[in-house]
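Newbie here. two chains, one complex. Structure please?
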Amino acid sequence: MKVADNINPNIYEKGSAREISKTDLDEDLKDDFDQREIFDIIRNICDPEHPLTLEELRVVEENNIVIDNKNNTVHVYFTPTIPHCSMATLIGLSIRVQLLRALPSRFKVSVEVTEGTHVSEHAVNKQLADKERIAAALENNNLVQIINQCVKSV
Amino acid sequence: MDPIWFKEDLADEIIKQSYIFNETQSIVTDIVCDRIDITKIVENMAGVLTHRDAENREKGMRFFTKLLKDLPQSYLNQMQVNFISKFYIDRLKDNHRVIPAVLEGYLAIMDMKNYEIKLCGEYFNILFREIACQSQLRQDRLNIYLTVQKVLEKDIDYLKSLGPDFVFGLISSMDGERDPRNLLFLFNFLPNFLAHIPLGHLVDEMFEVISCYYPVDFHPSPDDPAAVSRDDLAKALCPCLCGAQEFGEQCLVLLIEKLDSSLRVAKLDSLRLLTESCKKFKPETYSPFLKALWSSIYREISHKTDEEIKMAAHEALSALVANLATSHNTDQSFENFVKGIIISMQTSVAESTTVAQFVHATRVLLSVANSSKESCIIVARSMIPAIISYYEFKTSAKLQVASLEFIGDLYDLAKHWDVLNDLEKQANEIIPLCLTSVSEPTKEHQMAGFKTVIKTIHALKPDLVLPFVEILIHIVQHSEDDDLLLISIGTTNAIARKYPELIMDLVVKGKCNMDNIMSDKTNLQKRLNLLSNLASIDDFTKVILEEMLKIITLDEKNAYNIVEALNTSLSNASLYTEEKVTQIESDHGLIDSILSWLFKEIKSASEESLLHGYTLISNTVCSLPGDKQILILARHSPNIIEKCQSEDVYFPLLECLYRSLHQNINDPTFDDILKLSLKNALTSKSVFVRTRACCLVAHILNKAEFGQTFEMLYELLKNYLASCSKDNEDICSPLIHLYGWIVKALILRGSDVFTFWLQKILLTITNPECCKDGSEAIRLIMTDQPDSLNSRLHCRTSILYKQRIFQAFVTMSSKLGPFDGETKEAYLLSWAYVLEKAPKTVLNIEAAQIMPLLVDALEYDNKDLLVVMIDVLTHFVLMKNLLVAQSFQTILPRLVKLSEYVKSMDVRIKSLQCLYEIANAYKTALLLPYKTDLLFDLAPSLDDKKRLVRNMAVRARTRWYLVGAPGEDKTE
């Protein structure tokens, strides 16, 4: 068995569930998408190496999400636990797949590594931005299996 | 003619194996009646007992054994028993075929009254020499063990005198036993044996024979009807392994070895063995192993996911510490061990960055402190100061809250072990820390601080009361948060119990002085709540209540607030006991004051404020003993009844006085009151009065004594309703409402006549004009009302009444119909109310009848109906009911349609949740045909305007994506 890249990562506190406000319960008001909602969709994705969520490892954080309701765009920046993490692409792919399944099709989604946190950040970003490579990856059963296992607990 | 056993032909008869084996009972009768001597019978059997064929000798012995078993145990005299015993012992040397009968027979001999225990010495001698136990059949082996057990029960001292040879014999006969039932017997028997019989030089051999089964690895065969489970065996084996102090060292070596194994059951068994062994072994047994034990236990405690192992490890640790603690005066190792644990846990506490890590470390410490008085002192002495300084340098709010909770728990343990005197210095530091915490602006800090103060109230010094009171009163006046208000009041109450004088000066006569409160109107209610809570403490009752009642009688404007505050506090039974309320009533005349206030206000005040008054009266009445209740009634009811006759607005006063009477109070005026209530229930213009009247009818019916009293009232009710129901159309709706109350009252007292009234309600559902009232009545029956028909108000209640209604409803509704449009909706709605409250397990039985209703209901545009029906559907889905799967073709499109139901987000959320659960529950093969369509249909919900709906849509859609996809691990 391959030993994980980062055997002993730092673990952080899990945030509490979003509190349900009065406006949430009001039938007539329209709730816009916000950072927190996108974060809630991806926080529970599991790390491929540890039984921990991306939130606990601080791979994704609420503040690293940019959303624009008017122009229908979502940018997610994620931070690998160590700069030479070989799983970075896989994590990015999981986030992308999850957002693809869980967001309305009007949004244009981009997933990138936070600047300066990975040795080959440009290569990873390029791969994640390439629609055809993503589509090809999702044809690969082994890969889909790993991704499905990561997003299962969401 | 004499039967055969009087002749020598008996032997031949036995050889022939004929009916004779069934005749032993007659032979025994003959022997007991002295018609024949047992010697004679044996003589007649001679031919078969000494036959040269082993096969026939076996038959002879079998017959003899059967005879002995049937004989009364006290019949044979000592000489006869001796003789027969000698004969049997001699037979042990015979052919192997004969042995089973001998073993069984000897067991019967040992039970005889005149059996001398010393005879068994020779028996065992020959037995162990001549017979290899493990080559016998299962039952015969068991018989051998049973003989040993018998001797152990009869005469332990004799067994001891048999010495090591006997022990060795037993060891060799047990060695290699494989049958689970026999093993279970041995494991149950051995601890007793080991506890009494010294093993001498055979300790190692004995331990080896037992320990070879450890850890038990056994799977019962699937078709065994009375299987012995692995856990039974493992549980029984534990006490054997630590049955004798001499096993100590070997047992611990074994246990540590198995703790390090990678097998989960081995770990669990070892931890349980350790727990068990701590009850038996002396503390010094553990000294050489403590390091190894702690490192293994700690490893298991740190287990991330397996809760069962974690719990077992905690228990083992507690047991070990408790055992070691018995040597705290003589041996240093206990203290060193506990200190070692503290040091390593302090490191983990210091390193922890999340609450989970912190709690994990502190739980270990709590386990240690929980296990003995001595360890509790050591842990608390070093951990309280450590945590206090930890609180100061860790700034994360969650960790600070967790540390406060830990200190509170530790203090509780110290209280439990009664060691607070040894901890005075440390405990004094706790309250200032709480003060720091409650001074923070966040709710979490304040809540945690107050909770800890309540726990550690004994350590509160008078000089800190003032700062706490300042903060508490500030919160009471300004906080909007209910939890925080509640705990602040609780804390004030706790402080007041410890320092009544201080709180009296600072709060009751100081900050919350009545005059003061009344002049300052802001947050009046909250401060009144505080005061009415404090009034439950004896020292305060008089002062506060007198003030309050004075205001109720004099001041009209704010009396309402006081009534509300009193009502809230008095209905809290843990605060105000029945005795306390009775005392308040007799000392201060609470009911009188409230009644006169109500009389004054009844026509002007709002319904809500009056309601507080009514509830307050009924709650006070219900706490009074029967004789006091009668007095109250006698004083007030004539006047009120008279007023009611002319104006129905006074009726609620009457109702609140009568609502909570004891069952045995029987007043001749009840007839009139029932009539009056019925009249009001049907004809009053006010909905409130009608409901109160129905409620009183229900209470009177429910409480009436069984027998004549009830019959008379019931007749009266029936006659009254029969006389008025036909002619007047206005009373149709109130009448159906009243039926609902009657059904509820009757079913709660366990009376079967409720079906008559339920039938009437069901008939109304088929009528388009009043079907809505019918389903409302059903709702009323199924819902619990806080202020009526419960045991606090001395009503009869039956726990399973909802189930009975459900069953009655199922039978009755099958005869109803046909329905159209409106009535169908009301019909489904009534079903919904019944299904919503009926116990879910009962629904499963009637699934076939309910399913079509669910499917139908999904098409109606009625929010209440949809919410309940989708819930019930989801319940069936969770039960993996196949009926749901059979209607997927209809259900799924309807649910999808409901996921865009505009009028209610609840319906949208619930239908999406149901779709999610469907994907979770059923086999892939059943779901796959619908997957593509569903993924497409669920997309619009992802952009729903409500976030809560979107969240559920995300769950449902991502779950459906996994259906049949690689990586979905579904056990099918």
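Moderator note: The helical segments of chain A are 22-25, 35-42, 88-102, 121-129, 131-137, 141-151. Chain A touches chain B through 34 residues (CB under 8 Å). Thread marked as resolved.
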